[in-house]
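We treat protein structure as text, and this decision shapes the records that our systems exchange. The tokens are whole numbers drawn from a learned vocabulary of local backbone shapes. Below, we set out a record of this kind in full and without editing:
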Amino acid sequence: MENEKSAGADCAGREPRELRGAPVAKAICGALAPRVERLADAGVTPRLAIVRVGEGAGELAYERGARSRMAKVGCEVQTSALASDVSQAELERTLRELADNPAVHGILMMRPLPPGLDEATAIACVPAAKDVDGMTTGSLAATFSGTGEGFAPCTAEAVVRLLEHYQVPLAGARVTVLGRSLVVGRPVAQLLLACNATVTVCHSRTRDLTAETRRAEVLVSCMGRAHAVTADMVSLGAVVVDVGTNDDGNGSITGDVDCTAVSQVAAAVTPVPRGVGSVTTSVLAEHVVAAAERAQAAAR
């Protein structure tokens, strides 16, 4: 683990640290190798099924990253690419078929779904044992209660794993999370609370957002709005984690944070890309391997 205890210190007079995801991903995946080998010895290859509706830039980028990560650790990936105008019935049929396939250990449905599709009903087609991205009610309940059962949403867990890897102090720290979705915002707030951080969750109805963000020693943005976090919103020496994967209009992704401006005041920032995303796909791989291990144990 790298010595990054000064990551949240005053950055006056020096360049801010760039907290890249690659070293974190390497550590996570390195620990998976012997587990995948043991499964292979038992004739089991962990397999992830991705269900994608449409071809959004963020979804395609995440899928490419997931495929690459899975291949590196010895897991298989299959994708069900559905048209953006797919019917609810076809989406649910696809999910049920994957749920019934014993060769599939984990199911990842890309979210959010296009308008007109019922996300909650679709998620209900995924059994908890194959829910490797904390989508189901049971998985979220386990995350919020801290029981350790099921799997937390991968991106939320990736934020905490990245901060822990770089030894950013969390116990007692003032942390502000921008966004309250069940995909990232609320789950990451709960995981940070479990690390004994003092967490504030901000959203579209928050009054004086800048005043709230400037109190934070650690700022996590998962709003889904390109460059919405500006330098005046960040306190000197803060650690800024950018979870945003927004379409920049040119087929690439950009973050929530105006990194060029924020880097003038922050002590440490995560880049987009090359930041949280690679950790997220590594956590996903870890979840798929764990799901395969559980399925093998249950079949004995």
Notes: The radius of gyration is 19 Å. Residues 276-299 form the longest helix (24 residues). The first strand starts at residue 17 and ends at 18.
